[in-house]
Amino acid sequence: MKGLWTLTLVLAALAASASWSAEHMYKKAKVGQWTEYKTVSEMAGTKSELKMKTTVTAKDETSITLTIVTEMGGQKLPEQTSVIKFEDLDAPHPEVKTEELEKGSESVTAAGKSYACNWVKNKVTSETEQSKSVTLAKSWTSDDVPLGGLVKMESNSSITVAGNEMKTVSTMELIGCGP
Fold it and tell me: 9-66, pLDDT tens digit by residue?
């Protein structure tokens, strides 16, 4: 579940990016392509590290199948498979408001390689009857990285549930990709 939660976070951050689209992320993907990321997070004074490798294992005109391998604290979690329908990616999410704050371009080094990146800084707010979350995220993307192009993402999140606030600071960085 942690791998899918992290994948959902990545999708939300990328969706907030002006340069991202479902077309770019999955429709152009090929079976066998993969990305691997390391995420370091701190919440309530506790740091955690997560590695997640996502591989395209099947694809047709309407959907893509991803296999997700997650390692948390040095321990591998059970492999997960997720089928994503392209039509679902473009569905509106009225409970999520995205505000672009800044954008630019710069070179970022990750996985031992320098990538020419476009970056965007967004404020993403989501509110339901039970909770409210606010995330400030800066994400760097490159056309040279498969599955959406994410090279790096930094985020500061605050979620309030039943009057209790939790804050999380995270950095997610590409550690490998292919082919």
Answer: 444 444 444 444 445 578 889 999 999 999 999 988 899 999 999 999 999 999 999 9
Q: Which two tokens stand for residue 156?
A: 């500061």
pLDDT computed for residue 134 by the predictor: 92
Phi, psi angles (nearest 5°) of residue 75: -110, 125
Separation of alpha carbons 104 and 139, rounded Å: 11
- pLDDT given for residue 24 in this prediction: 53
| Contact by Cβ (8 Å): 11, 22 | no
Architecture of domain 2-178: Beta Barrel (2.40)
Q: Where exactly are the structural domains of the chain?
A: 2-178
Average pLDDT over residues 125-141: 90
Residue with tokens 């192009």: 149
* Mean pLDDT value across residues 151-176: 92
> What DSSP designation does 90 have?
T
Specify whether the backbone of 162 is left (phi greater than 0), alpha (psi in -120 to 50) or beta.
left
Region of 10 on the Ramachandran plot (φ > 0 left; ψ -120 to 50 alpha; else beta): alpha
Closest CA to 126 of 171, 85, 94: 94
Whether the Cβ atoms of residue 17 and residue 11 lie closer than 8 Å to each other:
no
